[in-house]
Automatic annotation (TrEMBL):
Listed name of the protein: Sec translocon accessory complex subunit YajC
Gene: yajC
Task of the protein: The SecYEG-SecDF-YajC-YidC holo-translocon (HTL) protein secretase/insertase is a supercomplex required for protein secretion, insertion of proteins into membranes, and assembly of membrane protein complexes. While the SecYEG complex is essential for assembly of a number of proteins and complexes, the SecDF-YajC-YidC subcomplex facilitates these functions.
Assembly and binders: Part of the SecDF-YidC-YajC translocase complex. The SecDF-YidC-YajC translocase forms a supercomplex with SecYEG, called the holo-translocon (HTL).
InterPro entries from the UniProt entry: Preprotein_translocase_YajC
Taxonomic placement: Bacteria, Pseudomonadati, Pseudomonadota, Alphaproteobacteria, Rhodobacterales
Membrane topology field: Single-pass membrane protein
Amino acid sequence: MEAFAQFVPLILIFVIMYFLLIRPQQKKLKEHKAMVEALRRGDQVVTQGGLIGKVAKVKDEGEIEVELAEGVKVRVVRSTIAQVLSKTEPAEG
């Protein structure tokens, strides 16, 4: 019984770490994944490199085409999108 009592503080520390660090990080990753999957043409986005542009084309293989300026398009890996500034309304039809 005494040996178990020595492990109680370690178990408590692990539980506290889980709720303060691990769980919020998992939630943040899940939200980011949902945001990236919901990207559509016309959305204004910010990349992790700080570039701001509009989504010109959504490709299936994990990348999108972002228009930084008129006529300047770059291919960007979807997971490097840090933030969506403005969403476009879905087209009716």
